[in-house]
Design a protein that fits this description.
248 residues, mainly alpha, 0% strand, elongated, ABC_2_transport, transport, antibiotic resistance
């Protein structure tokens, strides 16, 4: 199933092209348009701070494609066809998640390369950089589980396209992806401190940038705990929704 979805990439090059356009656009916009206008804490480089936030935000947004893809399969009746084949029922969900993970990691590599061209640097060392990409993978799997549940719960592709994105905007923009927590009002900061995107961004900054400004631990454990919890809860909900769809 993973190969089936990945074969669509060369057949529909627009899919990969537009998957790359938005993250690259965000990198350039925040680097050259908004970067100089944001207040940073003392000793924090704005480019380093913003680039990691954009990388993490793009990984969460990219998972909306899982919602649309699964809803499209449902609408076209492909799920019913898959049910008649001699394969595990989990193959549809695992295949979709696997293909989106591969595609989004490619997007992450391109996006980071663009970031390097505009001033971003890995100051956390080789293992920190590798760990940061591992955090991207965990983010895709975690948010992809939510996307899969949404895609299997709505009635058509149009609804999935909206439902898969609408919840991501408040979640990412009420985190510290783009502004320090200290600049937020107290009522919003209370939420931002426990926001899973904040945990992921803190961990990625600690890995990519490193001490003395950012520290990877315990941020990495907190982020992984959030990601694991999301996979367990929403993965189970997605499987249940898929089984309900199969029983109709």
């Amino acid at each position: 199933m993973t190969k089936r979805h990945l074969r669509q990439v060369p057949r529909i090059p627009e899919l990969m092209f537009f998957s790359l356009v938005q993250p690259v656009m965000f990198v350039l916009l925040f680097r050259y348009v908004f970067g100089g206008a944001l207040r940073m804490p003392p000793g924090v480089d704005a480019v380093q701070y913003l680039m990691v936030g954009i990388f993490a935000q793009s990984m969460t947004f990219a998972t909306a494609g899982i919602s649309t893809g699964l809803a499209d399969d449902m609408q076209k009746g492909l799920i019913d066809r898959f049910r008649s084949l001699p394969m595990a029922r989990s193959a549809v969900l695992v295949g979709r998640m696997g293909s989106d993970l591969v595609r989004n990691m490619f997007v992450a590599v391109v996006m980071v390369l663009i970031g390097l061209l505009v001033g971003f640097r890995f100051t956390g060392g080789f293992w920190g950089a590798l760990g940061g990409f591992g955090m991207f993978a965990a983010t895709v799997l975690a948010f992809g589980s939510i996307g899969a549940w949404i895609g299997l719960s709505v009635r058509n592709t149009e609804a999935a396209n909206i439902a898969g994105m609408v919840w991501l905007f408040p979640l990412t923009f009420t985190s510290n992806a783009f502004v320090p927590l200290e600049t937020m009002p107290s009522w919003l900061r209370a939420w931002a401190e426990v926001n899973p995107v904040t945990k992921i961004v803190n961990a990625t900054r600690g890995l990519f940038i490193g001490p003395p400004v950012f520290h990877p631990f315990p941020a990495v454990w907190e982020a992984l705990a959030w990601c694991a919890g999301m996979v367990v809860v929403f993965g189970a909900l997605a499987v249940r929704q898929y089984q309900r769809a199969n029983s109709r």
